[in-house]
Amino acid sequence: MSTEFVHSRWALRGYLLYSRLASLLMILVGLGSGVEWATHSDLVPALGGRDMRLTAAVCILLSGLALGAVGSRRRRVRGLASLLCAVVAVLAADSLLEYAGVGYRGIAAGLDAAFGEGLRPPARMAELAACGFLLLGGQGPLILNGRALVLRELFGLGVLAIAMASLASLAFVPAQHGESLLERLPILTGVLLLFGTLGWMSSVPTTGLTRLSTAATLGGLLARSLLLPALLLPLAYTFAFKLLESRFGVSQIVASTLGAVFTGGSLAWMIWLVAALLDRSERLREASLQLRDAADTDALTGLGNRRKLDGMLQRLLHADRRQRLPFSLLMLDLDHFKAYNDDFGHPAGDDALREIGRLLRATLRPEDAAFRYGGEEFVLVIHGAHLHQLPAIAERVLHAVRTNAWPLRPLTTSIGGAEACDADVTAASLLQRADAALYRAKHNGRDRFESTGRAECLAGGSGPGSMPARSWSQPPLGCRAAGSA
Fold first, then answer.
1. Cα 52 to the chain's mean position, in Å?
2. What backbone phi and psi angles, to 5 degrees, belong to 238?
3. DSSP for 269-281, written as a single string
4. Which one of 376, 395, 450, 456 is the catalytic residue?
5. pLDDT at residue 369 above 80?
6. pLDDT by residue (tens digit) across 404-459?
7. What is the DSSP string of 198-244?
């Protein structure tokens, strides 16, 4: 199966736009939080839990600047963006070392000492925030330099897990007592971590985890339709039913029951949506197959048309030579069919052609194929047949046409045969040999079969000096019975 994806244009544009907006938001919030920390003002809302720390604000600002450089083709700009990501990782690692309890006093401790401890929130970022920024600082350079696809996606999933934990903790704020996860990861920091890692993923929408969601396929449509609800609905339900329990006095049993009902309903809705999309896809596939069959079928006789014949010959002749099975062509033409049309009219001629199509389907084996080549000419593709087997097969067709109960006038046919015996034979040369044999059958009295000789077959044509054609008007002794071809 090919690994190439056809991507949806609007999905690609949406992801790239989101990446730019996430970069802008991170820059603005990072600047605002830094100014807020330095001036003791309230520029950025805390959204519950602790305020954003200075080192976290700096990491957000630097990450936003680095994310904004993804679209640049200048090597220096991308190199500078990678350096900013490295600074983010260093600041995060510095905070984690301070939390390790080994007596380490890092950059945040130095800032607190310089500006006076106790006058403002500590500069050191929260523990989970430090873990998130460490992963985010590692994700950025890998995307900027197109390296380690699996590792960078694992970094992104790690940041997503930390950020989603922060959002889930917010759902319990209305009923919380004591410390929550927000004390270890402020909600605004968690939200920006989420925006940041999704921004990095969205900046390269045709690779990694976003690759499927931008594909113009059923899988891409499902991903775009269901991934976001699957992430956000559990958080929304948790928040809503905790709010009912803590603010409106609804009992825990009732709130839990409602939560189970709404969760099950949402799951059923997603299953229904998937089923509807799959049903629509199957209907479109069936309609497409019907249109393709109609395009490959002759409307009058119900046989394959010239287009379908060309496609089959291309497949047979371009198969691996070691696996190519032998096959031969029979080209037949109704004798004196112009006179038949002139005497009885074109509707009668159409009826005769339809009857020929029925006779050919009844005479051939299931694995063989009949095609209307044009006008009153037909081509039969006989699988597994060599040149010496064609007389018996052709005689069955001659006999079926000759003995049919024609209502107006008996009809006969002339047949020419050729084998695809040369490894380098082409569809055109094979049809040309069969047509030349058909012409000789017409010239030698009609209602008969002729084929190219073996030497003529290997030479790829019927030029001067080739062996004369062999003729059969009756099958040789010992030929196979009808139906075994």
1. 43
2. -60, -45
3. HHHHHHHHHHHHH
4. 376
5. yes
6. 999 999 999 999 999 887 666 788 889 999 999 999 999 999 999 998 765 555 54
7. HHHHHHSTTSTTHHHHTBSSHHHHHHHHHHHHHHHHHHHHHHHHHHH
Residue 451 φ/ψ, nearest 5 degrees: -140, 170
Other C-beta atoms lying within 10 Å of the C-beta of residue 351: 16
376 is catalytic: yes
The whole-angstrom separation of Cα 299 and Cα 113 is 89
Q: How many CA atoms lie within 13 A of 49 on its CB side?
A: 24
With beta carbons less than 8 A apart as the criterion, state whether 298 and 304 touch.
yes
- 9, burial (CB in 10 Å: exposed 0-12, middle 13-18, buried 19+): exposed
Query: Is there a contact between 50 and 121 (Cβ–Cβ < 8 Å)?
Result: yes
What is the SS3 assignment for 405? coil
Q: Give domain 306-472's CATH architecture.
A: 2-Layer Sandwich (3.30)
Q: Residue 449: how many CA atoms within 13 Å on its side-chain side?
A: 25
What rounded mean pLDDT belongs to the chain?
A: 79
Q: Are strands 413-419 and 449-451 parallel, antiparallel or unpaired?
A: parallel
pTM: 0.54
Whether 49 and 251 have beta carbons less than 8 Å apart is answered as no
Number of H helices, E strands in the chain: 16, 6
> Which CA distances in Å does 50 have to 163, 176, 183, 185, 186?
15, 15, 6, 8, 5
Residue 425: partners with Cβ closer than 8 Å, 6 or more residues away: 317, 460
Check whether 257 has a pLDDT greater than 60.
yes
Print burial letters for 281-312: b (CB count within 10 Å at least 16), e (below 16).
eeeeeeeeeeeeeeebbbeebebbbeebbeeb
Residue type at 191? V
Residue 412, Cβ neighbours under 10 Å: how many? Answer: 15
477 vs 411, higher pLDDT: 411
Domain ranges of the chain: 9-215, 217-295, 306-472
Find residue 370's DSSP bridge partners: 380
Alpha-carbon distance 416 to 333, whole Å? 9
Please state, in angstroms and rounded to a whole number, the distance separating the CA atoms of residues 339 and 121.
104
pLDDT tens by residue, 192-244: 888 888 888 888 887 777 777 777 677 777 777 777 777 777 767 777 777 77
